[in-house]
Amino acid sequence: MKIENVKLYNSKYAPNARRVRMFLAEKGLETPMIDVDLAKLEQKTPAFSSLNPFQGVPTLEFDDGSTLCESVAICRYFEELYPQPPLFGLGARERAEVEMWQRRAELYLFFPVAQAYRHTHPAAKVLETPQIGDWAEVNKGRALENLARFDRALEGRPFLAGERFSIADITGLCALDFLRPARIALPEGLEHVKRWKDALSARPSAAA
Description:
single chain, 208 residues, 7 helices, 49% helix, 7% strand
């Protein structure tokens, strides 16, 4: 289904933007997209800053010129309009479980991996000034420590929040796929994380 009353400012290199693209793909939704060249700092131009003063993608612009920013907030908007399939859970308990695991995936996996990338990769110098190598190493260690926790949590369940695929899994896959540019090797022996990653990568939305 095409949604024409909005446009999504996007970057194919930004994992936060990918989260929204995956979410839309799971819903079977399409929106007009405008690519923002982060390497050329288009996100810092006055025109874009007027849309999003925090100068980040994704940014969703409505026909009236108003905007909605932050990936999970944008996903929640589309969930309310198009609740099937449910990606934030059904019922009080399941919604709370999804919220918990989405938060954990974001804080304990997505964030440290992103910090490792932003403070080590040469392409990220324009995004992170100054790059602090020690901070990158701290976050690499945190990501590896937390991957072991996720591995234990995934034992006996197909998805982070239980039996149903959710936004928590989208955040998880985007973090796992960002390990490589962040120069973090997925440790051997995390069989549940590997099984989970393989299953998520096989979904059509992973190519979004």
